[in-house]
Write a structure and sequence with these properties.
With 141 residues, this protein is mainly beta. It has a single domain, classed as Hotdog Thioesterase (Thiol Ester Dehydrase, Chain A). Helices cover 13% and strands 37% of the residues. Strand 2 and strand 3 form a beta hairpin.
């Protein structure tokens, strides 16, 4: 397993963003992404719970990071979130992402945010399309 570098002012994984989530990503030997995160009132939606947009941002980031870590320079073109259980604030959440398949320029992914007991609370599916022209000069992870 290895830890990926943070991205400056990124809302999800940047240390330079005072409003960001401050997530650190780890890649395992199979290329899947992992993190644990405890969200707070800055990410609140319904009282005591995480905003759905914060959940979507976490899933977009984990699924995008798994694709970038595999060496593809992509942009998201589709993001689906299936909200199964509310995410409470102040508890350690487990976030994972993996590549499901690659077809032409499209890379399909799956991400999960799980509660401490392992319950899959939010499931994401994403489609990312290779678009290296958008990232001239951006270093690899």
């Amino acid at each position: 397993m290895h830890t990926l570098p943070e991205h400056g002012s990124c809302f999800v994984c940047g240390s330079a963003n005072p409003h960001g989530m401050g997530v650190t990503w780890t890649a395992d030997d199979q290329g899947r992404m992992h993190t644990t995160v405890t969200l707070n009132e800055a990410q609140q939606g319904p009282p005591g719970h995480v905003h759905g947009g914060a959940s979507a941002a976490l899933l977009d980031e984990v699924m995008g990071m798994v694709v970038w870590n595999a060496g593809y320079r992509v942009a998201s073109v589709n993001l689906e979130c299936e909200y199964r259980k509310p995410l409470p604030l102040g508890v350690e959440l487990h976030v994972t992402g993996e590549i499901v398949e690659r077809t032409g320029r499209a890379i399909r992914t799956r991400g999960v945010i799980a509660l401490p007991d392992g319950t899959q609370a939010v499931i994401g599916r994403g489609i990312y399309v290779e678009a290296p022209q958008l990232f001239g000069g951006v270093e690899s992870l």
